[in-house]
Amino acid sequence: xxxxxKKNGDRRNNNADVSxxxxxxxIKKDDDGSFPVKIQGAGVEPFExxxxxxxxxxxxxMSVLGREEVTPRSSVALALSGVTLDPMMELxxxxxxxxxxxxRLVEEPYSPRSAQAHLARVQEMLKAAGxxxxxxxxxxxxxxxxxxxxxxxPPTLHSSKNRRTxxxxxxxxxxPPPPAYILPGVSEVPPLTTLLPTxxxxxxxxxxxxxxxxxxLFITCLVGVQFPSSExxxxxxxxxxxxxxxxxxIHNQIPAFMNDxxxxxxxxxxxxxxxxxxxxxxxNLRYLGHLISSISQSDLKHQLRHIKRLAxxxxxxxxxxxxxxxxxxxxxxxxxxxxxxxxxxxxxxxxFSSASNGEESKKRSRxxxxxxxxxxxxxxxxxxxxxxxxxxxxxxxxxxxRLKEGLGSNVDHLVEQYxxxxxxxxxxxxxxxxxxxxxxxxxxxSRNKAPISPDDVLNVLPVVKHxxxxxxxxxxxxxxxQNSLQxxxxxxxxxxxxxxxxxxxxxxxxxxxxACHCLSLLAKVAYVQGHPAEARSVxxxxxxxxxxxLGFDHPNTIQQYVLxxxxxYAGGEAALAQRCLYRAKVLLLTVHxxxxxxxAVIDASLGLILQGEQSLQFLQNALKISQSFRGxxxxxxxxxxxxxxxxxxxxxxxxxxxxxEKEAHSIFQNKxxxxxxxxxxxxxxxxxxxxxxxxxxxxxxxxxxxxxxxPPEGLFPSQDTTLEQLALVNGxxxxxxxxxxxxxxxKLKERKAAEEAGKTKQESTNENQASEPSANNGEAxxxxxxANGNAERQTTGSDKASEKTDHTHMNGxxxxxxxxxxxxxxxxxxxxxxxxxxxxPPESQSKSSIVMMSPSEAQTESAVGNVxxxxxxxxxxxxx
Length: 880
Fold this sequence. Notes:
Strand order of the largest sheet: 2-1-5-3-4
Low-confidence stretches: 1-28, 150-172, 199-209, 211-223, 365-378, 735-741, 773-880
Number of helices: 32
Shape: globular
Helix content: 55-70%
Number of strands: 7
Structural class: mainly alpha
Largest sheet: 5 strands, mixed
Radius of gyration: 32 Å
């Protein structure tokens, strides 16, 4: 185990000191914080390796093993000055380690376990590493390297020299404009060819697998089973418990799930994420019909339309999957692709019949020289029609899910009524049945021609229901790190996350969903602590792991691409950050469509990174989506109002900026109160905009083209402010209010007021008793006052203890600025919640309240005075 006694700050200082080579000449660090070391020994030619000071020795070894010249070896170690290095040590903690140092590669004897790992590695190397080859084998490819124009590398590797060079080249290039198909307002689905970006070494026509294994839990009710009479009481008890559990799910868990979908930032995007979210609440998929009914009867049904859309799609696909399993069993191998394409056409094309498909089959057979298709036409699978299939799906949905709302006469009803995309439905069907289709554009609106031909069906892969194997030690350490984050102990959580990530890499080579989540959280912690280079390095691994383990189009992959864009932008790689956001937007539009809450997150991020009219276009669409799903009075909506106000001020539209800031101030005032720091910051910004608008208007009326005075500096966001706003938009930092906290504070004030009244009454009684001319009574009075003082101190102490307890159980909904200043001691840190997920950490509380403006822009005037000033200035503006 590593020695965790050292403080992280010392390690950072040590890392910063690594800047000299062995020859004594200064070696400048790269922008991403990496520096070179020399590797030699083990019969290979000496080479240079880019490393980071925060890397473990094991990370450096994995990078070395990724090089071609070291490929034949697997059991190796690194040594410095003849001493073999501990794999668990960080490079910056090694005595004598510095930039340019020479490390010796030492071969170690193979143990039975390392020999097995070596053979597995050799077998993996024999397989082609290209994304098209992964698709042909039913595995999900990793396209990050193609997107960033870097060389292919295993997911456990960090930035190599080649990647560093490409990153620098990327930074120097001009930022690419957003593609037309991701712009707000475009109704068409992005071209499918954009899902897997290709380079000059990859054929454009390779196939696409939309496939990954999934976990589905079912509770099977045994029908017709006879129990012995002696077990009748037990059976009745189990029936009663089952009914109570069902009632609890319908009346408690489903409403709680609906509430989470409105308030939480992690919202399901497809069937897999919907299934996972339901299972986390203990809701089985057979309750999908109850979920749809509950949403239809809810007052917030418009805000939950995306969940209702996903539930309908999941029901249709699951019913179609059950019928497809029996449908495909009787098909001959030679007709398999034709049968699969026919089934998909019946599902996605209304009133599809076998007549047109039969004609196409005959033409294809004649072209291939195989004669007519009589045997094929008479096959049972070819007799299936679109109306018959949809009727079977509707019947199964009613019987299995108790669906009260009808599915209509065909799939077009779901498209028109609920906004379901046929491409999303096709994706879900392929995921659940293992169908592999060619990467091309499919026209589902054609009534005369089958959109999917037998030539488009490349393979049918087995879909295996399985449970992901757990790693107990790594999972235990990961959970401990999450608990530390809940207490605000970022340093401790950082060490635990590093330990957990190492354990994951040792057991499953990082290719594990929990390893992906662990590394993602590690990147967030590193970023919040002010180390974007480390966050970037870790997040690159996260994206590749998510692509290969969960799928290149999985919702988690979309979110990880957006987080990577934040860290890249913080490191000055704006062009690469934009490409990652474009990639995330394309995947979201393909998987679900633009009508989703997460669209606001991506568009707001693009609005912060882009400039000019494009920035305003994406921010306006983000505001529209946020108002639609979260409401006009939500704090997220207020934040986007403020972002729009800033960008409008940059473009010179002060009146428009003033209108948006007024909306933001109204929301903050209603949600947080007059005295909240956020409300005060909004008041200051609104006052500055109004004053500048008055000056501009006066100058224009006097004949001037523009205001003669320089606009206030606080109107234009700085780079640091933009970075913090990106963190807020993407949930890395979060500003939230808590109704429970407000209620607790009010009750605490009332209790203290009652205690003060009791103390005053007691003091008046003591004064009356002290007025009696008796020395004994005077002594007794002194003793009573002393006792009362002790009691007061005890009461105050109990109040503080009670307040601390309630702070700990606020369920992560602490306000971001309830605490001022930086916590120093561990006891004080335990009182604060970490803002990695639930609030701003103690290290960040000295910054601006919601990052509405930089700390230097904050004003000291009261909120009421600022609002009055804004009103006066607005009156002047209207008069002029």
